[in-house]
Amino acid sequence: MVKCAICVHLIYSDIVQKCREELKAIRETNPDLKPTLAIIQVCLCCYIPADFVSTQIGLNVMQICLPRQCTEDEVIDEILRLNEDSRVHGIFLHLPQSFLSRSCHFEVFTEMFVAVVICQHVVRSSTRWIQEQQYQPWRLRPLKLQPLSPVPSDIEISRAQTPKPISQLAQEIGLLPEELEAYGNTKAKVHLSLLNRFQHQPNGKYVLVAGITPTPLGEGKSTVTTGLVQALSAHLKLNSFACLRQPSQGPTFGVKGGAAGGGYAQVIPMEEFNLHLTGDIHAITAANNLVAAAIDARILHEATQSDKALYRRLVPSVNGVRCFSPIQMARLQRLGINESDPSDLTPEEVRAFVRLDLDPEKVTWQRVVDTNDRFLRKITVGQANTEKGHARQTQFDIAVASEIMAILALTDGLADMRARLGRMVVGSNRNGQPITADDLGVTGALAVLMKDAIKPTLMQTLEGTPVFVHAGPFANIAHGNSSVLADKLALKLVGEEGFVVTEAGFGADIGMEKFFNIKCRTSGLKPDVVVLVATVRALKMHGGGPNVTAGVPLPKEYINENLQLVADGCSNLKKQIQIAHLFGVPVVVALNVFKTDTQAEIELVCRIAEASGASAAVQCHHWSRGGRGSVELAQAVKKVASQKNNFQFLYNLQDSIVEKIRTIAQKVYGADDIELSPEAQAKIDYYNQQGFGALPICMAKTHLSLSHMPEKKGVPTGFILPIRDIRASIGAGFIYPLVGTMSTMPGLPTRPCFYDIDLDPVTEEIKGLF
Amino acid sequence: MVKCAICVHLIYSDIVQKCREELKAIRETNPDLKPTLAIIQVCLCCYIPADFVSTQIGLNVMQICLPRQCTEDEVIDEILRLNEDSRVHGIFLHLPQSFLSRSCHFEVFTEMFVAVVICQHVVRSSTRWIQEQQYQPWRLRPLKLQPLSPVPSDIEISRAQTPKPISQLAQEIGLLPEELEAYGNTKAKVHLSLLNRFQHQPNGKYVLVAGITPTPLGEGKSTVTTGLVQALSAHLKLNSFACLRQPSQGPTFGVKGGAAGGGYAQVIPMEEFNLHLTGDIHAITAANNLVAAAIDARILHEATQSDKALYRRLVPSVNGVRCFSPIQMARLQRLGINESDPSDLTPEEVRAFVRLDLDPEKVTWQRVVDTNDRFLRKITVGQANTEKGHARQTQFDIAVASEIMAILALTDGLADMRARLGRMVVGSNRNGQPITADDLGVTGALAVLMKDAIKPTLMQTLEGTPVFVHAGPFANIAHGNSSVLADKLALKLVGEEGFVVTEAGFGADIGMEKFFNIKCRTSGLKPDVVVLVATVRALKMHGGGPNVTAGVPLPKEYINENLQLVADGCSNLKKQIQIAHLFGVPVVVALNVFKTDTQAEIELVCRIAEASGASAAVQCHHWSRGGRGSVELAQAVKKVASQKNNFQFLYNLQDSIVEKIRTIAQKVYGADDIELSPEAQAKIDYYNQQGFGALPICMAKTHLSLSHMPEKKGVPTGFILPIRDIRASIGAGFIYPLVGTMSTMPGLPTRPCFYDIDLDPVTEEIKGLF
């Protein structure tokens, strides 16, 4: 608990009077509040009597009158001793008069401050303490940015800016010190208790950044997001928060590089953002792989032990007493066994209890690793002598593909996360019944491993504006959006007039559709505006331009002006605007300008966008100019967000699985119909039978086309969407139909990024990250 | 940079005079020091002129004279603005007189303090600032401990004690705020820059805790270590530091439980200690697996591409320019190719450069995971279509078995760590030449991944005394000791009269031998005393008692008094004392007392121990009583550590590999001789040929017997130690002969620990960890 100190500089007795009045006012206006209080009084002749405080104000305040001849150390010791005593709510220190005439009182005074700092007393008035529990206007101090030309590398730009201490940023935006857990000086986890403190605080505006169908190079949604908040907060002086996904570490060393934005629209320090951050993905890896180890070990133990032996080991006699653990009691309940004494179970009940009877062929849970390790795409495990005879084929996915990541992104708190972790289906038994993490008895351990990961991480942009980095689920087999919790915290923090800008992965047909139908449905939050990111490059591709391939120089069509390609390609932009309108949300088109774009191309795009129903269409220069380059976008977003909208979901959960899939395929992708493989149809029957039919749909489709065919650009029509198979993430809470094959484990190229990455052992500076 | 504030309370002008004198004295006695300085002056009529400070003291101090009518906000804003200006070394604030007669000056005064706190100004005099750069006597405030009987569970004891804020502990032991990186409120990483600041500070006493040959249950070295520092610091008021290994997270959920000590001798919060901590093991996992992914990807790329294609991809043309990266230049140098223009290489040179030609059969590098996953003990990777034809058999080890962990434990800084990472041998090419991480081009990326892990983590014991937790290499295939860096930092921090207590894994024949011959040789540190931990239980086992097995109740011999078994078993204790004496280090025997031990048994052990050459032998009750129960041990350690000793290594590095192994086998284990398998002999020839012959030896032997036969208790004699195979960790810097089979991947039992582990979603408290 933070102890609140009033520091009274008593030269005039009117101060005493003022203090009395303030303390009394606190008590009267806030009868429920018991602010802890430390009164440090340097006094000549008068002071506030401690009993006055205790009786009038109702606080437990201790008065210390130190002996006349006490030393400075004794003063400090006394303060520290009292600070550690949890019964003492405050310290009321009356220094003997002699201190003030002794030449040493200068040191006493400074020592006292040191003591106060040591104790983490925040020196402020009680009035302030109470105010701070309420919503505070921001006192954001943006960092100055002086963009260079040509634009240096991302790591150079990031390194050239000194971030504010994260505790300072936290204070500027109204976080209390006890709501912050620093991880070094540039990142901190924020406690979920904030949601309680601000439960009556209205939310700010909720802005989604989505994109048109991208080229394989990406069209800059993250930089637009970052540039937009830099413009809103640092230039328009409006509270704003960016909520970003945490990137997988694997691709950082592979082919993709970092994901902290780029140019002058970045989250800093970019190396922290791109590496371990605060360990959330590592926690997911540990939790995911504990489930995997538990599955295989359990299969082995069941295969090699009798019911009796299993039961004896699962419910051992400890000091002569056998009893079920709470986790086991929960399993008994699920099995409909109402005994609580282990000796009362019938042999059949024992058998039901000890045998999950998992079918090794039907284990759906995979191990994960946060490395681009293609050789783990298909493996055989259990080939050692100790497991002989139980080898089986399985695979590793990249860590962010874990269902636990999707849960982290969708949960609204610890209790909900624990419940979702327990519901995760890891496979089925030989009778076809789903087996869950709860059945494995591992739920509690998973919650323990994830207890810190659930808190969003606070960082800052290049211009010192706040950013939450939290969760980064796959955008195909999962929903590709950052966490509900980060958005919720940010919406409270920015205040009613503020803006939260969050990003959805892939094109709008995928990321935005899932943002609305899955994330907003789960969170109950209503979006105010969609920012749709387009580039002249991608539009030219949709207009019939040649292939765009990573690592290969761009064909000349993309470097020289070509208005026809742009005009033709705007069909994709128009379609994505229409998709947003299906949900009743207005669209601002953000044209992310490259230096090869001509004025005529830019104007053409903006004109067509507005003609296609966009509420506004503006060009953005955040990459080369930071927030200043996105001011026009920020103004457009501000204006459009203030309009009323009619947000609605695209389908009802109660629709059948087939109907839900068909709705997305037809209305969003523009397919004529869907076609289910026999596997898919069988899975639908199975999920319906298991009671999973009312979950939302999370399509696993390529992001390179509105259709399932990556090579079909623009707005493909006249196609039937094939549903190859259907899977489910029951804990996360969605069903994901597979359209084509999804790789869940990237590889390393011949020349991986790590060839350029190094650390200067003296300066500790990182080189080669981009 | 921390700005240093002098807070001047100017009531009397003699203070001004005093201040002037102090500032002048600083300048005169420390001509090189430029302490940054903030002077906040609340003044009636006189102040220290800023130009006086600037010219006389040589600091860049800015004086601000605010307008008479300025508001509080303006004052604060000005302070904050200046604080962010890196050119300003200090703030010299002269408030107008009017402030002191206005009724609002109370708020101004408190606001100013808030500003000071916000800015992370440490409010103290310049004298203090300079003093703090030097070694500071500790001002440790131990936490009070009131042990209960019967002793509650470890997690209950841990949770019942509120740890000090880690920043407070850091300040108490003389760390500067800028040397600390908090990870939450109870753990923090400490910067290695401390070693520079204290380079002229003499080391404290260096105490090693080792044990007799243990039962499979362990004999309590960690609790003795923790209890000893609690006794030294909290009861004898001597500076002391415990240096512990970070435990693997896998066994926490398997069979072993936590490793933070136990009972009333624990590191708190124990759940932080046992779970992710500050992410070091996660960083090792990421680094280790990046090497593994790079190996397999490289083999695949080389197998499927021509020299020319490989060269084109490895050295691509970027904007028409081809050049080698620094990492590639280093490889060219190793190959003896002195060209720097990629077009100048001959086809043969290109071939040598692009082909590591790794033999898939001779890859020695394994993947790791920090989970007890027995099904990964032997696996086949690369079975997906995308890698078809390149499947190979390999394995996962538990993360702490990674060579990178051994490197972390032995390195002395970033540059050394980077060099060691680069030297790691991952396999050999088809010509039998070793291939290193440097050859893979991954060294820089590994250093980047490990840049935070290299900083030791500060935590505290139950009694609020400091602990470093850092590194935890395997005690058989590696050397089983915590990090050199943590010990070095701690030895400086405790001061010349202080104590650093570090622990070696397994029995003294393994952990202590490696501590001396490997760790001390690498670090150059000299141990002062060995604390040898014994239990009546283990001694009875060595005396011929029945088998002790985990999870099975102890036979009656271990519960009832049996002096004969104890007396016979002391042979093992005597032998381990003699081993320590081989190295010239005196021994204090610590008998870790269990409640079933009788007074006669305890006295017998102590008598025999002293007769066997121990400098002292005392009983310890830390588990039930905390530091108070180890005061006698602390006194004995203090006394023995003050005696001079003649530390020496057991062998010279220049001895042949066989000779070094034989020396350890005969002198430490008591073997008659060693016997090399043909594989072992071939490896020795190979290592000699590669120039690895002068590395120290790290024996991989069972810890359950002095011999290689776990069932042989006491002091086995008349045996030949078989060396089955020999391996090498070139980066870590040792050769490890295998005596028998070492499991590097534990499994989960039928009823793993996680059955009892859970999280309360409301209180966030963890249940079931032990």
UniProtKB/TrEMBL annotation, chains A, B:
One matching Pfam family, short form? FTHFS
Output the PROSITE patterns linked to this UniProt entry: FTHFS_1 (PS00721), FTHFS_2 (PS00722)
Gene3D superfamilies to which the protein is assigned, alphabetical: 1.10.8.770, Formyltetrahydrofolate synthetase, domain 3, Leucine Dehydrogenase, chain A, domain 1, P-loop containing nucleotide triphosphate hydrolases
Q: Which InterPro entries match?
A: Aminoacid_DH-like_N_sf, Formate_THF_ligase, Formate_THF_ligase_CS, P-loop_NTPase
GO CC aspect terms: cytoplasm
Q: Name one GO molecular function term.
A: formate-tetrahydrofolate ligase activity
* Pathway as given in its UniProt record: One-carbon metabolism; tetrahydrofolate interconversion
Top-rank EC class of the record's enzyme: ligase
UniProt similarity note: In the N-terminal section; belongs to the tetrahydrofolate dehydrogenase/cyclohydrolase family.
Give the quaternary structure: Homodimer.
Q: What is this protein called?
A: formate--tetrahydrofolate ligase
